[in-house]
Each structure stands twice: as structure tokens, then as C-alpha cells.
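Researcher: We plan to redesign the surface later, but first we want a full-length starting point. C-alpha cells attached.
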């Protein structure tokens, strides 16, 4: 189900809780909402659709991925980026890493780890920040 985008910075600044099996409906809604906004968005966190759970959806070209309870384990190659957000007006500068190693669970709650670079790494970092209540 496509959900409305939350734009309340006080809500978005709250830390999200760990996601569990019963939250996979939220993950599906998050992916549906991301797909509906593909023309202006490449990633979303569950708090952006009003649910304070640690779930993110990422699109990198044709590849769509749900990450449940993502944790960035390490990063390298820090640089300054300018990013926009569907929940906020305008763009802002922030620090990102060119390469990150991430641990997460898939929608079956199987643990995964992976290394991401470039734009995909930037998207994951932005959405993981949302889970921590960090707004750019």
C-alpha cells in the first residue's frame, strides 16, 4: 500500500525501534511507497511513512532492496555530499563515506552483510541516518 510521506521534523528526529517479523507489512508498504515516488526519490526509511521501525528501502537503478535493522559497520573515503530528502524541502550538505560495510536482515530476517560503494553507499547512509533520527 502506498502511504503518505511524513514531513514533520519532530517525528522524523525520533530514533526508530528494532523491526521484527510482524513489521514486514511495513517493509512492503515502504517499497510500494518508494516505487510510487521513483521519479523523485531513491531511498526511504519507515519513519518517512509514519512507522518508527528500523527498515529502509533502497533503489539503485533497477535494483530494489529492503534492509531490516541496518547497521553500518565501517566506512572509508569520507567526502562531502549535497542531498535532498522527500520529507524535507531543499538540499543540505553532509559527510558520507564512498565505501561502507553493512549488516542487515532481509525480509525473512536472515542476517546479511555486504559492501557498497558510490551512490548506493550514499543512499544507504542517508536512510540509515533516518533510523537514528538524524536529518540532513
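Model: Full-length starting sequence:
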Amino acid at each position: 500500500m502506498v502511504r503518505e510521506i511524513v514531513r514533520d521534523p519532530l517525528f522524523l528526529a525520533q530514533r526508530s525501534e528494532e523491526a521484527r517479523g510482524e513489521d514486514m507489512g511495513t517493509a512492503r508498504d515502504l517499497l510500494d511507497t518508494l516505487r510510487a515516488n521513483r521519479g523523485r526519490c531513491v531511498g526511504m526509511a519507515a519513519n518517512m511513512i509514519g512507522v518508527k521501525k528500523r527498515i529502509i528501502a533502497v533503489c539503485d537503478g533497477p535494483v530494489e532492496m529492503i534492509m531490516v535493522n541496518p547497521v553500518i559497520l565501517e566506512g572509508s573515503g569520507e567526502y562531502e555530499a549535497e542531498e535532498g530528502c522527500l520529507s524535507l524541502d531543499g538540499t543540505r550538505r553532509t559527510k558520507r563515506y564512498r565505501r561502507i560495510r553493512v549488516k542487515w536482515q532481509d525480509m525473512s530476517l536472515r542476517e546479511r552483510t555486504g559492501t557498497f560503494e558510490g551512490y548506493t553507499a550514499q543512499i544507504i547512509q542517508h536512510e540509515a541516518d533516518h533510523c537514528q533520527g538524524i536529518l540532513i
